[in-house]
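Human: Not sure, check this?
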Amino acid sequence: MRKQKRKQKTFTSSRDSRLPLDRAFTQQRGLELDGSPLDAVRLKSATRSSTIFRKRIAQSPSRAQHGDLVRVLSDDGALLGTGLWNPRAEATIRMLTRGEQLPDVPWWQERLRGALALRREILKIDEATTAYRLLNADGDGVPGLVADRYGDIISLETFSLGMYQRAEAISRLIASLLHVPNWIVRPGPQTEDQEGFIASGFQSGQAPGKILITEHGLRYEVLPFEGHKTGFFCDQRDNRLRLRQFCEGASVLDLCCYSGGFSVNASHAGAQDVTGVDLDETAIDAAQRNANLNQCRIRFVHADAFAYMRDMQRNGRQYRVVILDPPKLIRGRKEYDEGLKKYLDLNRLAVSLVEPGGILLTCSCSGLLNADEFTKTVRAATGDRPARLLFRTGASPDHPVAMSALEGEYLKCLWLQVDR
């Protein structure tokens, strides 16, 4: 273990005015290491978590800048590993390696090859789709970063300063391994609040504004610069396929339909009629284009899901299949109680619109809401109507979850049959 050249200071503040996050801290850097000794952070206690929060830090590094690699030491001085440092963030350190290993270029190459082998050799995902998750943050050992493939373009989304600083180098490395020509980078939607920096997305010179992908025999248009997340919800792939078994001859209501994935699959499976509802007018336009691509007749409605369901409830309208897949309703702990109430209210309305013996697929992508609490909330929403839980599902397996970071299991889907 290298000796420290300077005495460490106690770490107390998240907003260090001596190191403002100006544009200099959002400049791109490479993955190469220059051989210089890394500064060290000492923790109050050891942990196996890949995310180390501020409250666990006992002493900060003396020289490390925002986004730098640092060595992480336990309370007794033992080396735990290496991580990315950002004192502006509550998630102050994102661990990359354990022990003496350093995240140099060969380490990144091995990490990316392993992630790619999981998708292509084990999951054989290329047989089902041209769009899938390549890197899933902690699940692939790269906390603060996700990357999706859409045909010949790689779309990265960064959730930490250190990953944003290295995003171009990572994109180029992925592109070279996959032999694809284009890539784009987008900072996550809450990086200013959570990481203390503001930055713009960027891309390779020839990256297209839209691309067509295929999934289980259907086609979709992806707008990687404009869509939510990295442009498309790859995590619902297997659930879209499963939905087909319930839709032949059925009336289907797809609430918060976004770009129409569930709606298109329901229509493709032979639904009698399909209605998709979303408050985002841009999403409705995208959903209509996807319906046209697949020659599906779907009625899309630009409306708030709450208001639309209340209207249908007043009209006495019910459906054989109802899908409820709202956006994230709990983004932070301060929003937990309000978000939980929204899930309860949404599901109460959705249950009332399911005809006797029909199917409700209800989803939550709020990571802070665990599976048991979501199930209890939906159970409460069923009220006096008898309901049976048929399946519990989540994200497709190209979204692996690290056993040391089970909070990464964000997507929860319940399939209910609702009686009388």
In short: The CA atoms of residues 363 and 376 lie 13 Å apart. The chain has three domains: 9-98, 105-203, 233-418. The chain has a mean pLDDT of 92. Residues 105-203 form a domain with the Transcription Regulator spoIIAA fold (CATH 3.30.750.80).
